[in-house]
Amino acid sequence: MFEEKYKTIGLNIMYYRRALSMTQSELAEKAQMSRARVSDIECGKGPFNMESIFLLAQALGVDPVRLLQEKE
């Protein structure tokens, strides 16, 4: 039902992670989750909860809202 939204969030996380030259493993460690979970989220495999979004945003140093927004 929300597949496109999950994909958008995943792409945003990947964008910010790569902008910081961070690996999925490094992000996973900072966000206190598994690398497989980070990979699933980046690939848009939902559902995932808001706690995951908050943890990833904190690890990336961005406002969680930025992870939810569609790029223009």
Sum this structure up briefly:
With 72 residues, the protein is mainly alpha-helical.
CATH class: Mainly Alpha
- What is the tally of helical segments? 5
**How far is the N terminus from the C terminus?**
22 Å
Structural class by sheet pairing and helices: mainly alpha
CATH architecture: Orthogonal Bundle
Helix content: 55-70%
CATH homologous superfamily caption: lambda repressor-like DNA-binding domains
Order of helices and strands: HHHHH
How many separate domains?
1
- What CATH calls the topology is 434 Repressor (Amino-terminal Domain)
Mean pLDDT over the full residue set:
95
Strand content: under 5%
Radius of gyration based on Cα positions: 11 Å
The description of the largest β-sheet is: none
Instruction: Kindly state the number of beta strands.
Output: 0
Which stretches are poorly predicted, pLDDT < 50 over at least 5 residues? none
Tell me, what's the shape? globular
Tell me the layout of helices and strands:
Elements: H1 3-19, H2 24-31, H3 35-42, H4 50-60, H5 64-68
Helix pairs in contact: 2-3, 2-4
Key attributes of the depicted protein:
mainly alpha; 434 Repressor (Amino-terminal Domain); 0% strand; globular; DNA-binding; Cro/C1-type_HTH; DNA binding; DNA-binding helix-turn-helix protein; Lambda_DNA-bd_dom_sf
Can you tell me about this structure?
The chain has five helices and no strands. With 72 residues, the protein is mainly alpha-helical. The protein has one domain: 434 Repressor (Amino-terminal Domain), CATH 1.10.260. It is globular, with a radius of gyration of 11 Å. α2 (24-31) packs across α3 (35-42) and α2 (24-31) packs across α4 (50-60).
